[in-house]
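Customer escalation, tier 2.

The customer says the design service returned an amino acid string that "doesn't look like it belongs to this structure." They asked us to rerun it and document both sides in this ticket. The original structure tokens are below, unchanged.
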């Protein structure tokens, strides 16, 4: 775990380099990649290959490679929150998970701007900068601060999604939008927010954060309340147990 943390934190100077962040290409509607994304992925991948040559690799910026899903696979989002990075919003993170036989066993999410490093190993709890973290005690939406994801790459989802946002907003204390799925999952784990949901997330968006959230006592499922599958795109709902149940009911009224 210490080796993985060293590898992840070693890319801070790349992520905070504004000249690289301003080198932008558009992959699709509201979907961007910068020189930072590519450089971070290349550096981390090279170090992982050197330290863990037996493991496969799945990264956001090059996910065409084949690997054995039943063995060890590293799942990397080099910059979760690329649009934030472009705007210097400073809510971007490196997300790295180790998946073994389809189960996430280690997860790291690192925001180099705040120097916050969230991590977890299965069965050993979740931590923020070496201090244990746990989800909040909020058990109802009326007690909750809820983070949302707007699916900006698929704006055809807007009508149903924004109706759901309205319904949640009316029952919760308030809603938030960070632009980073990995950080939202970790913020639920740390008790800063009480729930988070977003549609059509990719494995690199949620793999590491899902373990950190679960090890902190949170609940994570798809929009139907079913167990998430790590190597598939998923609609993600993560929250305290009570808030999860209430949000799930709100989702069911629309989808």
């Amino acid at each position: 775990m210490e080796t993985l943390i060293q590898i992840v934190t070693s890319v801070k100077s790349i992520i905070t380099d504004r000249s690289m962040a301003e080198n932008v290409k558009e992959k699709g509607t509201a979907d961007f990649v910068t020189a930072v994304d590519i450089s971070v992925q290349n550096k981390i991948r090279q170090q992982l290959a050197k330290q863990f040559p037996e493991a496969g690799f799945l990264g956001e910026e090059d996910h065409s490679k084949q690997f054995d899903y039943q063995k060890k696979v590293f799942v990397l989002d080099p910059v979760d929150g690329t649009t934030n990075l472009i705007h210097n919003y400073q809510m971007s993170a490196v997300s790295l998970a180790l998946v073994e036989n389809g189960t996430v066993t280690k997860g790291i999410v690192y925001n180099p701007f705040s120097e916050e490093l969230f991590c977890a190993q299965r069965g050993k709890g979740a931590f923020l900068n070496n201090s244990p973290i746990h989800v909040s005690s909020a058990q109802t939406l009326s007690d909750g601060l809820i983070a949302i994801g707007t699916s900006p790459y698929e704006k055809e989802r807007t009508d149903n999604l924004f109706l759901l946002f309205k319904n949640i907003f009316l029952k919760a204390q308030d809603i938030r939008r960070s632009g980073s799925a990995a950080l939202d999952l970790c913020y639920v784990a740390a008790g800063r927010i009480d729930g988070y949901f977003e549609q059509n997330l990719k494995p690199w968006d949620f793999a590491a954060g899902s373990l950190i959230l679960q090890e902190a006592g949170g609940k994570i499922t798809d929009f139907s309340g079913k167990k998430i599958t790590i190597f598939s795109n998923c609609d993600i709902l993560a929250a305290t147990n009570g808030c999860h149940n209430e949000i799930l009911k709100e989702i069911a009224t629309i989808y």
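Tier 2 assessment: The sequence is consistent with the input. The chain has a mean pLDDT of 94. The chain is about 35% helix and 30% strand. Sent an explanation to the customer and offered a walkthrough call.
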